[in-house]
Amino acid sequence: MKRYNMRKISCLFLFLIVLSSCKSKKTLVDLNTTVLKKISAKKIIKKHNALSFDAKSLEAKLKVGYSDYKNGKRNKINFTVNLRVLKDSVIWMKGSKVISAFRVKITPSSFSYYSLIDKKYFQGNFSLLEKILGAKVTFSQVQNLLLGETILDLKKQKFISEIDDVTYKLTPRVQNELYRIIFLFDPKSFALKKQILNTHKNNKALDIDYKSYRLIENQLVPKKIMINVTQPEHFTTINIDFKTVTLNKQISTPYRIPSSYKPIKL
């Protein structure tokens, strides 16, 4: 595996890695035979927001499968990630493939990464992620993606509600000039099923599919997430399996860049 590939994969994973009505948080059910009734966007948003992640911390072990197809060549990599989240404060990751491969620490104002493979680091704002992904990235977006919440604040704009097969669909009344976004919700639990983003400029599509959830301490937490990124002659899939999850545990986020490592130049 090339060193650059692991650096790119780990950064891409962070972003792509760039969610029961009210507080009951019921288990998701099969709705193939259910006839849905149209409801307002306001009601969908209210019920979904009632599921907001309110635990103080999350610690999880993730199994990640990465598959990339470009110019007729396919690259597959599997690795594990130890994830720790202090809500609205810190996202910490340690990635391993047989041996430790990378470490990451993200705060609302900073992004820091170093690779134990190529002995290089980046420390600063989100410019490294934004350069690799070609899109603006924020702490909230990364946190929401991992916790099963929408990457946009649903309270800050108006939406149109529709029925899409066996899900409720929300689309902004006024779409962004740079991209088009769609949210799909489970009609029983109002958990996020999918969020789909299509950019106008480079014909890139991002599809985040929340395959399943688990209920832990009355908190709905993603169990399996599949992320697809499609662009001309290039297709990437990331499967994230939350193997173990612990909430509200006192956690630490140790992070020290070795003095011998060289900075990554943008």
How does this structure look, described?
This protein has a single domain, classed as outer membrane lipoprotein receptor (LolB), chain A, CATH 2.50.20.10. Strands 7-8-9-10-11-12-13-1-2-3-4-5-6-14 form a 14-stranded mixed β-sheet. The chain contains 4 helices and 14 strands. It has 266 residues and is mainly beta. It has helices at residues 3-16, 41-49, 127-133, 139-147, and strands spanning 57-70, 73-86, 90-97, 99-107, 110-115, 120-124, 159-164, 167-172, 179-185, 192-199, 205-216, 219-231, 234-247, 262-263. The radius of gyration is 19 Å and the shape is globular. Helix 1 packs across helix 3 (127-133).
Main attributes of the structure:
mainly beta; 266 residues; disordered N terminus; outer membrane lipoprotein receptor (LolB), chain A; 14-stranded mixed beta sheet; 4 helices
Give me the number of helical elements. Answer: 4
Helix/strand structural class: mainly beta
Tell me roughly what share of residues is in helical segments.
10-25%
- How many domain regions? 1
Task: Just give the CATH class.
Answer: Mainly Beta
Question: Can you tell me the CATH superfamily?
Answer: Lipoprotein localisation LolA/LolB/LppX
Our estimate of the beta-strand percent is over 45%
CATH architecture, please? Clam
CATH topology tier name: outer membrane lipoprotein receptor (LolB), chain A
Q: Supply Rg.
A: 19 Å
Distance between the termini: 22 Å
**Tally of strands:** 14
Order of helices and strands: HHEEEEEEHHEEEEEEEE
Shape descriptor:
globular
Strand order of the largest sheet: 7-8-9-10-11-12-13-1-2-3-4-5-6-14
